[in-house]
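re: that chain from earlier
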Amino acid sequence: MTAWLDPSSLDRRPDGRDESHLDEQWLGAAVLHIDPEGRVEASEGRPRLDFGAGARRRDDLFLGRASGRAWFARMVPEARGETMTWRDSAEEDYDVLAAAVSLIRWHALAPRCEACGELTEVSAGGAQRRCLACHELLFPRTDPCVIVAVTDPEDRLLLARQTSWPVGRRSVIAGFMEAGESAEQAVHREVHEEVGARLTGLSYVSSQPWPMPRSLMLGFEARASDSHIRVDGDEIAEGEYYTRSEVVAAVGENRIVLPGRASIARELVERWLSRG
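^ sequence. v structure.
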């Protein structure tokens, strides 16, 4: 997760989006194959790439430059063969894949013009869409959401299971921001709605892109006023506070499964564990 605290490895400067020059500039391109659900075609656990002259098509989406080459994403109807998700990627692939999956999923919706409602087309190498009728420009949308590691007065960590998750999977509380709401207000509301807790204080930690489909996760830590939990039964099926030794033992015995290491949720859990 520390990758998100450093400058991005992906140079997104727009000069490469001039479609009249793409063929000449990017003969050495790397092309990713991704379907509308965000599944990435893979080979031996890494993204499968097309390389070299002729690899790129004119409708591929320009992502930027990284590792000495230009990167593009190609939307395929369905990823074939071995596949992976953005969350399965190695840390060195985070920046490129997060951008690729986010753009592919946005363009897959082919959003209509926000001004007149007519059809739009890919423009500027994929960085935007242009209305075919009124020429209004549309840009990829990012939906902010909050995620928070809640501790009780005894410094135990709240871990919960969403109703759609298998038994044993645990994470911290998260949810989308609503209209007219600050990030901090969203934390207070989501925690109270999902587990019935009231917070006495919270602090911002860090953020992470989450292209599933197009979110920005804002990470927080917070302290609950007491140890009372009342799960809503709708989004959250169960939850409880854990000591550090209880978490370590439960993970070691496979009684609980924590979020993957690509997730800011895992970073928040490990930050709490490290203070023990």
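The CA atoms of residues 66 and 188 lie 39 Å apart.
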